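Notebook entry, structure prediction.
Reason for the run: the old model in the group folder had no record of what sequence produced it. Starting over properly, with the input documented here first.
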Amino acid sequence: MLLTFEQAKQKLLQAASMTIPLANERISLIDALDRITAESIISPINVPSFDNSAMDGYAVREFDIEKSKILPLAGAIFAGDDISHLNWPTGTCLRIMTGAPVPNEADAVVMQEQTEITNAGIHFLSDIKAGSNIRRIGEDVKKNTVVFPKGKRLTIPTLSTLATLGLAQLTVFKKLKVALFSTGNELTPIGQPLSYSGAIYDSNRFTLKLLLTQLNCEIIDLGIIPDDPRQIKQALMAAAKQANLVLTSGGVSVGDADYTKTALEELGQINFWKIAMKPGKPFAFGQIGEALFCGLPGNPVSTLVTFYQLVQPLILALSGNVESSLSNLSFKVNTATDLKKSPGRLDFQRGVLQTNNKGELEVTTTGQQGSHITQSFNHANCFIVLDQELGNVSKGEQVTVELFNALLK
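New structure, fully documented this time:
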């Protein structure tokens, strides 16, 4: 009996949780994009580190404004000024610029649009609210608090926050090492002529390298391995010695020349083989020594779908990313086209989510859904996820759509 998609995914993540965690390293902040924090990051300072003005205007004391709506101007404070010896007479106001330090005596900063300049001084046109337009010390980040937890992927916004803390270096997990190769006598390296009518280009390995690069892995490319049991076995042994995860494309189906599964049985163990999903039924998962193994199907669309749906969360978990278990964004909408499906396997069809002329979201199919139709991804922005036991779906029925994440955008 075939494993369901969810059962297969849980087995992958369970195996990831039992592996030895990656070692860590110290790197510079500028090199930390997309890396995973190996320890919680504690703020060494308050941000802001001093009370400062949120806009251009005038610093005032509340009791001065209560006495008079017109206050003489006593001076100006600019960003970067040292106000430790500031002399601010009572009954006056101070011109202040955005980002400038706010005196402790100030109760508010009044934006300049709510004032007018007169011969007698600055006329405040409305009542003030205590604390308005003042950015308080520690309002964004408080000193000695956890800014980001262990297992956080460092994005441009997170690194920008860390730059405000003055952190020059971070402790992150080392990159996950992934070894990959393709199998098949029919495969031809990209850029070389196809030598006979049955030859095809090795597009899967090219695609997998792009996906692994996007996921910030260290790639060990072992090239194309012919359909030879001995060479496939040697490639698997070499890959397992060098990498945390081994990926192959092809060789896990039921054909006479599909030797990868047999070699895996001899060298290690197979946790499962074949899943009730479409595309991607012939997907193998196992282990060789300390390295986990994923054998992806040979058809291009099947390779891409299984990597996205199964290998991607496995890599995130192995990389130490605590956000890896978060579900992809999915919801139900009406389909604007009929959808063909046979019961028995969870189906990930490629679709286009868009707004119709009524302003309502709806999804349409990209057309043919064969595992060789790579063009289906060029027009799609989501998966139409059809339940395992579901049959054909008629136009107007509700279906589940799963928006592509950044890996496919």
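Summary: DSSP finds eight helices and 27 strands in the chain.
The old model has been moved to the deprecated folder.
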